[in-house]
Design a protein that fits this description.
Number of strands: 56
Helix content: under 10%
Low-confidence stretches: 1-5, 15-30, 32-36, 392-439, 644-677
Radius of gyration: 29 Å
Length: 677
């Protein structure tokens, strides 16, 4: 009898354990090889390593981290099932670094998500995300890392690291940092997105033989630096001004997009104008785009600096210069084929050179009341200058002279160290004229449809490859939630709506398609019958191929028989589009210069898409409705593949004397060295 009861008890216990496993697997991740049922990533990884497992797979699910995960042996791989599938969250608010690799050559960590916000907390609790030290040839790839108080990813003192295709969001100090101060070289940072930081988006701190390419850095404008600095640099090459000889060398930044970085987009500095302890060597910036940053490029204490083919544009109102070369030990500077401007009217100059020696040649500066270039009297003989000044899209050119009989002109100025008359006070008048620049953007394929009492709409169109597809959705009661083109999810640029009387709303969605073919556009709205859906799709060739695709987006809502929207001045070759929706159909008239793309007027409702090629500020309009009704509109400008801003002047362009400009406060240091590893 006792044996029977024991057997029955064991059977019931087994069934209970199976039930617990089933329940647990439905609520949190269970690691299949763990010694105990747990969703603690720290325990899982620690136990796997103790049993000799070097390839540690964390299946899709949510994991807690009870202690900092420390890897101290080579050839360890930690991986999940995707950055939105395998999610690691600390449940201990005192964890300093979530995951660290030390003396762990050939490590890899990829395809998972980590957060610095502990369970039950609403703000970051962990200082650092992934920190490595003296771990050669490591790989950090496809990680979504967000909300850490200091450094989200840092690769320290090791050779041959690869940091690829990660998404780094909301870093208290730096997003991605490379630190070779105590040894190491050859790290590659490529294809990453850093969105939100307080100090530097991507930095090479005493970097050596380092490459950063094809990254996107944006919104380095937070104010949560634990060091109280908030320097707001997009991408930087730095030296350690506290240690003699600790400088960067052989660093290249190429084809990066940097947007909305408060103080500067690109920075190369050995000492940050602190105590001179050395210079960076052989730093190169190629074909980067910097937008909406107070300064495009800052250079200080670099020997052998090359900057070529970069675009510095869309400056904020606080901007004082597009490029600044500071005093210090800089030499052998080669800045070529740059495009700078336009800056705000209060800017000091397009380019400011306070020190160093080298050349600034074959570049274009857009001016608007401020001087194109300022060079300190003391270093004029050390520089060769040859540049083009744009004052309006109607221009003529002159060479080796600043004098011209044209009132609106492009002036090409060439100087050498033997010139003594180039930098002088002058005044040039400019009239307020505007002409279309002849956009290179071309309308490719168009389609449209409408339906009544519907929650979805589909239509197909045949398009070329490498096209920007714009989808305009006019709707009644229910807001569109998902728009896809050819199975690819579209992004929403903007929306507007009105509810006085008959409800009407309008969204503008977009997606870039690299392949040609016939694609189906699908629009889904919130549940419930919709008054109507009007859908217009248009593909464009000749646009930029990566975000941002648009500039100066604006909206307007009126009750009346006409509606307008103003798109501010911007880029040469752009195409301005205007989308309009209304709950009633009618005949209409477009503004002067506008051309229709498509209009739908089914079931007594209306949508229209039209365009105009103009780089100047333009007010787009639609008028002539037979009845007064709600009218909503979105206006924006599509950027061309060779995006270059234009400018038109309406008043005198005053070139200030070179002795009238005050040298600004020295740069601050970003304190990129790791604390508390």
């Amino acid at each position: 009898m006792g044996s029977y009861l024991q057997t029955k008890f064991r059977l019931l216990l087994s069934l209970l354990l199976v039930g617990i496993c089933v329940l647990a697997s439905s609520t949190f991740a269970i690691h299949p090889t763990a010694f105990a049922l747990t969703n603690d990533a720290y325990q899982i990884i620690t136990q796997d390593l103790a049993s000799g497992q070097m390839n540690i797979h964390l299946p899709a699910g949510s994991y807690v981290v009870s202690q900092g995960i420390k890897i101290t042996e080579p050839n360890v791989q930690i991986y999940g099932d995707g950055e939105n599938s395998t999610i690691l969250t600390p449940n201990n608010a005192s964890i300093n670094t979530l995951i660290s690799f030390r003396y762990a050559d050939n490590f890899s960590i990829h395809d998972l998500q980590i957060t610095g916000i502990a369970v039950g907390q609403t703000s970051p609790t962990s200082n650092n995300g992934i920190i490595t030290s003296q771990s050669n040839y490591g790989l950090i790839e496809n990680i979504y890392a967000h909300d850490f108080k200091q450094f989200t990813i840092e690769y320290q003192n090791a050779n041959g690291g690869l940091i690829l295709n990660n998404l780094v969001v909301n870093s208290g100090s730096n997003g991605i940092s490379i630190n070779d101060e105590n040894g190491g070289q050859g790290t590659v940072v490529k294809g990453n997105v850093v969105d939100g930081a307080s100090d530097v988006g991507i930095t090479a701190f005493v970097g050596r033989n380092f490459l950063a390419a094809n990254n996107t850095v944006r919104n380095v404008a937070l104010h949560s630096s634990p060091f109280g600095e908030n320097v707001h640099w997009g991408m930087a090459v730095e030296g350690d001004h506290l240690v003699a000889g600790a400088t960067s060398s052989n660093v290249t930044y190429s084809n990066n997009l940097i947007v909305n970085c408060g103080a500067a987009g690109l920075v190369a500095t050995a000492n940050n104008n602190q105590t001179s302890t050395g210079v960076d060597h052989n730093i190169s910036f190629y074909n980067n785009t910097v937008m909406n940053s107070a300064s495009g490029l800052i250079v200080s204490d670099v020997d052998g600096f090359i900057s070529k083919g970069n675009l510095f544009t869309s400056f904020p109102a606080s901007a004082k210069a597009g490029i600044t070369v500071y005093q210090g030990l800089s030499s052998n500077i080669d800045i070529e084929n740059e495009f700078i401007g336009p800056l705000p009217l209060t800017a000091t100059a397009g380019v400011i050179i306070y020190g160093g020696s080298g050349k600034f040649v074959n570049s274009t500066i857009v001016t608007n009341r401020y001087p194109a270039i300022f060079v300190s009297q003391a270093v004029k003989p050390n520089w060769i200058l040859s540049y083009t000044v744009i004052t309006n899209s109607n221009t003529t050119s002159t060479t080796s002279s600043t004098s011209s009989t044209s009132t609106i002109r492009t002036t090409t100025t060439t100087t050498s160290s033997s010139s003594s008359t180039t930098f002088r006070t002058s005044t040039t008048s400019a009239t307020a004229t505007t002409t279309s620049t002849g956009a290179k953007i071309v309308n490719d394929a168009t389609a449209g449809n409408s339906c009544k009492s519907c929650t979805s709409s589909t239509l197909s169109f045949t398009h070329q490859g490498n096209v920007l597809v714009v989808v305009v959705v006019g709707y009644g009661l229910n807001v569109p939630t998902v728009v896809s083109v050819g199975g690819v999810s579209a992004s929403k640029l903007n929306s507007t709506s009105a509810s006085t009387g008959s409800s009407v709303g309008e969204d503008l969605w977009y997606v870039f398609l690299s392949s040609s073919g016939t694609s189906t556009v699908s629009v889904q709205t919130k549940a419930g019958p919709n008054n109507y859906l009007n859908v217009i799709v248009q593909s464009f060739t000749g646009t930029v191929t990566t975000a941002p695709f648009f500039e100066n987006t604006a909206t307007n809502t009126v009750v009346g028989r006409s509606v307008s929207v103003t798109v501010n001045s911007g880029t040469i070759g752009r195409r301005i589009i205007m989308a309009v929706a209304a709950p009633n159909s009618s005949s209409y008239t477009l503004g002067s210069g506008q051309k229709d793309i498509w209009s739908t007027q089914g079931n007594s409702h209306f949508a229209d898409l039209n365009y105009e090629d103009n780089s100047a500020q333009q007010t787009m309009s639609l008028s002539g409705f037979s009845i007064s009704t709600n009218l909503v509109t979105i206006g924006t400008a599509i950027l061309p593949v060779t995006a270059r801003p234009s400018i038109s002047l309406s008043s005198t362009l005053a070139h200030a004397s070179t002795d009238q400009i005050t040298i600004p406060t020295p740069l601050r240091h970003s304190k990129a060295r790791l604390r508390g590893f």
